[in-house]
Design brief:
Length: 154
């Protein structure tokens, strides 16, 4: 009867805490982060380390460049950490690291490619040329310039 050899069940305390952090951060980001700079942020997941020291927070963004949104969120990470500390009643509140989630946008692109490939009359050469043209078009788009903060706080 060794207590140290018990297997960790999926959906245990680590997952429940990650879900709670995601829920609380979603509320706080809505109130605390400037949507002009960061855009509309949606949290898609939280990965916690085993010791709860670090949390990787995955997000998607609409209306802003993902790199700018990531920088804005990581700037506010300390403030969000302090607010999270007040809400959660645990010994160690993780340090927050925001990462843009590229899986959703990649999934949408793949879905569009599958739809185009299944279109009657579309040849493989025509599909390949269309994909290359879209890739060139994405490279030509310049990222949005970050706006200056509205207040004098640094």
């Amino acid at each position: 009867m060794s207590r140290h050899r018990q297997k960790k069940l999926p959906g245990g305390r680590n997952q429940r805490l990650a879900d709670q952090i995601q829920k609380d951060l979603a509320e706080m980001i809505q109130r605390e982060v400037d949507t002009v700079r960061a855009g509309l942020v949606t949290l898609s997941g939280v990965d916690l380390t085993a010791d709860y020291a670090h949390a990787k927070v995955y997000f998607t963004v609409m209306g802003a460049d993902p790199a700018v949104a990531e920088a804005a969120l990581n700037e506010k990470a300390g403030w969000l950490h302090s607010l999270l500390f007040k809400r959660l009643h645990i010994h160690t509140v993780p340090t927050l690291h925001f990462v843009h989630d590229k899986q959703i946008s990649r999934g949408i692109e793949m879905s569009q490619l599958i739809t185009r490939a299944n279109t009657p009359g579309m040849t493989a050469d025509g599909l390949e040329a269309e994909v290359e043209a879209e890739a060139d078009q994405r490279e030509d788009i310049a990222p949005a310039e970050p706006s200056a903060p509205d207040d004098d706080r640094a």
